[in-house]
């Protein structure tokens, strides 16, 4: 029993240390950007030992990947919105809400997303992680399209995986424009326009 208690305390201490390091990494990434940030700065800011830090993470890429996963979970919650429309208009309303929420999330998480974009362009590890995240979104969209096709709402002759890929890439392009503050129109207008084109092309 005592051994279990020691193990629990050790596990808790380990979790706290890991979180301290992640919080410190986030601060350093936001201050320095991906390229200039170093794991030494993060360890110093977290006020933990080097040996302890390397038990949890091999380097700054590992830390960024965990931070990226945390942020993208927020985006994925939007993609997981229940999609069971009965008619085309209902489908369009759900899709518009998803697109708008996705792009608003890009605006809200702009600073960290800028760091992710830098890292995707530099690190093959982070780039591969982004591809995995992207595929997860495409798979989820593909399921929704297949549902609409099976229920006679969408054109059955279209390959739902190709359509899903096209829809995600459209959203992703605008996501990065928003992150870079290069978008010329409001999030609402962008979401409304791309949804309208997408639904018109896919739905019956």
Strand content bin: under 5%
What's the rounded overall pLDDT mean?
94
Pattern of helices and strands: HHHHHHHHH
Helix/strand/pairing category:
mainly alpha
Shape: elongated
Span between N and C termini?
64 Å
Helix content: over 70%
> DSSP helix count?
9
Low-confidence stretches: none
What's the gist of this structure?
The protein has helices at residues 2-36, 39-46, 50-56, 60-79, 88-108, 110-122, 124-150, 160-179, 187-202. The protein is mostly helical and 204 residues long.
What can you see in these coordinates?
The radius of gyration is 21 Å and the shape is elongated. 82% of the residues lie in helices and 0% in strands. Helix 8 (160-179) runs antiparallel to helix 9. The model has no long low-confidence stretch (mean pLDDT 94). The protein has helices at residues 2-36, 39-46, 50-56, 60-79, 88-108, 110-122, 124-150, 160-179, 187-202. The chain starts with a helix and ends with a helix.
Mind sketching the topology for me?
Elements: H1 2-36, H2 39-46, H3 50-56, H4 60-79, H5 88-108, H6 110-122, H7 124-150, H8 160-179, H9 187-202
Helix pairs in contact: 1-2, 1-4, 1-6, 4-5, 4-6, 4-7, 5-8, 5-9, 6-7, 7-8, 8-9
